[in-house]
Each structure stands twice: as structure tokens, then as C-alpha cells.
Amino acid sequence: MQYIRNVATLKLDEQRCTGCGICVKVCPHEVFEIIKGKARIKDIDDCMECGACSNNCEFEAIYVKSGVGCAVGIINGILRGTEPSCDCGCDGGKSCC
Question: pTM of the prediction?
């Protein structure tokens, strides 16, 4: 699911990346993949900016301004008349992403 095109704040510092794969495991939209021992962003427009990747990267190789995508997902759900959700698994409360 893509949100708004060409606006994601996601950045990956390949020099800091060790290829541990935690970003692949925690990303709810499968934005990352590991190629030749390093993380790679498959499609930045798939990023909902939940912050799971940057919050879990102990090597500080990932930056994202978290929270923005979840808000967009919730607003889009309301506008569509569907369940307001960003699909990140949180309840929208203080502990969200």
C-alpha cells in the first residue's frame, strides 16, 4: 500500500548498515530487502513513516520522521469510509510505532 508519493522522509546510510536485517523484520510494508549483505530500500513510496525501522536499527543507519505516515493512513481510512488504520499494528495511542 502506498501513501503519498515522493514525500517519505526515509533515508538509509549504507555506510552504517551492517546488513543485520532488523529493518526487514520490523517493517510492516516490506520497504527493505537485503542485497549483498546490506539493506536496500525497495520502494520508498511504500514507507508509511511509522518509525519501526529507525527505532530498531542499533547502528543508526536509518532515519525517518516517524508518525507522519500513520496519520496519513488513519486520515485516508476515514475519508474512504473504511477502518482508519495505518496497518502498523498499533492502537494509535502513545505507544504507536
Answer: 0.70
